[in-house]
Amino acid sequence: MRAAFLTRIAPLALLAALCLPGSAQAQFTNHSIGFEAGFFYLTPEVGATSGPTLGINSTLYLDHGVDLYFRAQAGLHQEGGGMPNPKNLIGVFPALGLRYLFSQEDFRPFVGGCISYLHFFGSDSGLFPDALFAVVPIFGGAEYYVASNTAIGFQVEYHRTLVLNETLLVHNANAIAASAKVAWGF
Prior knowledge:
The protein is mainly beta. It has one helix at residues 2-19; strands spanning 31-42, 51-63, 66-78, 88-101, 107-121, 131-134, 138-147, 150-163, 170-185.
């Protein structure tokens, strides 16, 4: 039942939310750049442990409440699989996508989707794939403008992954990321 919700109902709900009409409102800033810190939860099938992340993000306002979104994060992880002396890993998670702002006032809730790439550096054991590709992760969150050009916010993401360096088979590897952020508009 849960899998059916995540694969069928959640994308339909996201599509329906994106199609809702909204009134024209003032846009504080058309560009933003920010910093974020959070936690990246990985299922055991990925082969690396969950860990903290730091990153930068940027948005470019397109039109009608739609932003072009870019993010680059790095995280600290360890090799999974119950190894006796797991190596430390650095995970890199860039993403490019679109987000829809439900409101363009001080408080801005949003949903979106992006194409994201996941790569771990530091392993030579070969116990897990070197690269994972997250196919259109969905995310949601909110920002609040505490000043005309400064916002604080949070974001939560769900990733379903494909392994790139194998035969493009879907593995049961999922990830959930949550982060807090601060952004400056210009």
